[in-house]
Amino acid sequence: MLPFLGVSMNIVVTVPAGCGEILQGNMDKRSLIVACPVNLYVTARVVDGVFDELAVPEKSRRAVAATLRYLGEKSFPYALGLSSAVPQGKGMSSSSADIGAVITAVSAAFGYEMTEKEICSLALAIEPTDPVFCEGIAAMDRKSGEIIHTFTSVPPMSVLTFDRGGVVDTVSFYKDKDKDPDGSQDLKELYSALKKAGDDCRVWGAVATASARANQKIFYKPELETLIHLAEQYDVCGVGTAHTGTLYTVFMPSEKIFSAGAELVRAIKRTLPGLQYKGVYTLIAGGVSKRGR
């Protein structure tokens, strides 16, 4: 495949980050993850110029190399830039968003449009992946990259985020067999509840809370039960976590965020001063946005 020779190149790709996961663990002996995409984005841009490997993170360089191999190309004849305000190592799908954006941008430069299945396959070869680059809210098999289901109804929820500190390297985390999230309880009933929920915020929040609790024996977070008890006093939808990160997520109906959100944040700061408030985001449909050529 040939690049667009003689044509000024300007491709811009955006992919949302995520706030932990709605659901992650074992389901019918499959490794399940249900994404939690939010309105915080990574942008990859391809323009005329020379590709500088040092201009992008190491995992993104690997994404470029994997995409070139997949397309049968030997080199990338353009400049590639990556911009992101997503915190690293917190469980906000920063690497997944980076990798998805890069794979899409590089392939588009050669006139090839990647499918979700192809992006998942390439991304999983680089690191364990959160499918924030898939349409809607995706439920993915973490090992095969298969999209098991796409939730098209996005519940109108805001996501308050709190960080307990430190960073987690996803690749190293999954090398520890004692921390395999597939060792948690079977989540079939929780997944079934999600599929029946539509955009019911209460069901989505309850599932996230149950999944966070199930993950405690994999990645224990000592503040979880206190946070759940406190949040319940403010009639939230639920409390989740980044299953392989340091993030806590509190799900609240979007219409209540202005009336009760600030009060809840203050209460959490008083009760759990070790948690740092990181901001409020909106749950959205995931997917890749691409423009230009």
TrEMBL record:
Q: What's the short name of a Pfam family annotated to this entry? A: GHMP_kinases_N
Q: What UniProt keywords apply to this chain's record, in alphabetical order?
A: ATP-binding, Kinase, Nucleotide-binding, Transferase
Give the PROSITE patterns listed for this entry: GHMP_KINASES_ATP
Q: Does the keyword ATP-binding apply?
A: yes
Answer whether the UniProt record assigns the keyword Transferase to this protein: yes
> What positions does the domain GHMP kinase N-terminal occupy?
62-129
The residues forming the signal peptide are: none
One function term, GO molecular function aspect: ATP binding
Domain of life, per lineage:
Bacteria
The name of this protein is GHMP kinase protein
